[in-house]
Write a structure and sequence with these properties.
This protein is α/β, with parallel strands linked by helices. The chain is built from twelve helices and 15 strands. The strands form two sheets. Strands 1, 2, 3, 4, 5, 6, 7, 8, 9, 10 and 11 form an eleven-stranded mixed sheet that branches. Helix 6 packs parallel to helix 8. The chain is globular and about 60 Å long. The site of calcium ion (CA) has 6 residues, from loops.
Length: 512
Amino acid sequence: MKFRFVVTLWLMAITPFGSYAVPEDEQPSHGLVGLRPLPRTAKMDHGHNHGESCGPKERKALPTEVSLKPSSKQSRPNVLLIFTDDMGYSDLPKFGKSEIPTPNIDRLAKEGTLFTDAYVTAPICVASRMGLMTGQNQQRFGVYCNMYGLDKIRLFLRQTLMPATFQEGGYRTALVGKWHLGGNMNLHYKQGGPCDRGFDEFVGIRGGHADFWKGTQVFRENTRFPAPEYLTDLWGSEACAFIDRNYLNPFFLYLAFNAVHAPMHSLDKDRAKFLNIKDENRRTYDGMLLAMDRSIGHVLDRLDKKGIADNTIVLFLNDNGGGGNTTQYASHSRNFANNKPLRGNKFDILEGGVRVPMLMRWPKQIPAGEVYGEMVSSTDVYPTLVAAAGLQMPEGQPTDGVNLLPFINGKNTSKPHEWLCWQNRSWIPREKGGPVKPRPKVHNSAIRKGNWKLVRMNEKIASKAPPPPWKLYDLSKDIGEHKDLSKQHRNVVKELGSLFNKWRSSMHPTVE
Ligand SMILES: [Ca+2]
């Protein structure tokens, strides 16, 4: 395996604030009129694939594509990227005290490496998915919350997404499951869908959530059809079918479950496994997660059956913290997940919103049964998988992530990240009636360096008034972020606050 570009990536990653200023001509436009024509590259428009029609294309053959044995040592590894939705940090037995048996996900921990301190770039779906798919903080595109509309996401549309890099590298690429980038529910666009952004195949839902029941309308490319089974099972079936069709040559499979996002729909047979759980909603959540584990099990079994498990890198990650339980919480995201002992939920930049379970398995290439405790980021996924495949990151497109392989293999004993920053729109809980609501131009911010976490809530970013004071937590003693130490450690507040301000000044202003 070659890591030809690793040094370059590291240099980019360790350059604190890089040469990443947004050009003047890329300032956000607030209408389609201002949308600059997009280049005819994998960034968005794949030749005849323009406008959401996926399908077989002429591919440039890889030297290894003549191989008849999928496990040939010359083969590039396959990639299975599993992304889950709104799962609680402590809902997997390997990460917390959970009543839900997840033997298949546990396999990934036993046969691979578990990350205790993995973070996503945002506590909400769209923004987090942008971070994963670009390997960059989505604030570079002016995105600080869920954003819809081609004009609002125009900077994001210019990025070469992870699947496009694999597609250009000769991989067969597929998205099975949830897309949720550039549209929501019935609000879709003719451009910017999965087939415009690097996926050869797409079956799933385009928006943020859907009913899970058999018969729910889902997409195959741009055609709707009724789901023949419970959605979480369908994604597993479709992933297995994709593997059956493509296991002889390298593939990139993005399996993005909409489980365990609301609505709370669980099969009776799954919910029945948790009759000892008193809370009916929690029982439903347990059944939804049980179904997801079963679906993942089918896909892992299929890798075994086809003899390609050793040559497939599997990365498992959740998109943002679990949703809340009370009626004060937004009903579309209330899913009764368990983040404890972390504080906060989806929407929060507290640990409960942005720290997520992560696992990586690549037999004989990364340690099995190990735990990695340094901070890692969802922005690391793109450069790590690209490095594993021996491909190159897109020319001229920086990443905020690093290739994690040398770190988890012990070849690099330093930290992947000295610090990580977050900034996201604040949500206000309802007081008397009505759901939790996003607060435009009111943001929450945070930075973690070592065990220190600095948090600031409800800053009016358009106001010249002094921002609310920072609060400081020591995560080594206070994982629940309850005891504010800002007054006892003013020097730490000053240092981390300064780092955060420099990071923020290198981002793009919000386009909300
Ligand atoms: Ca989510």
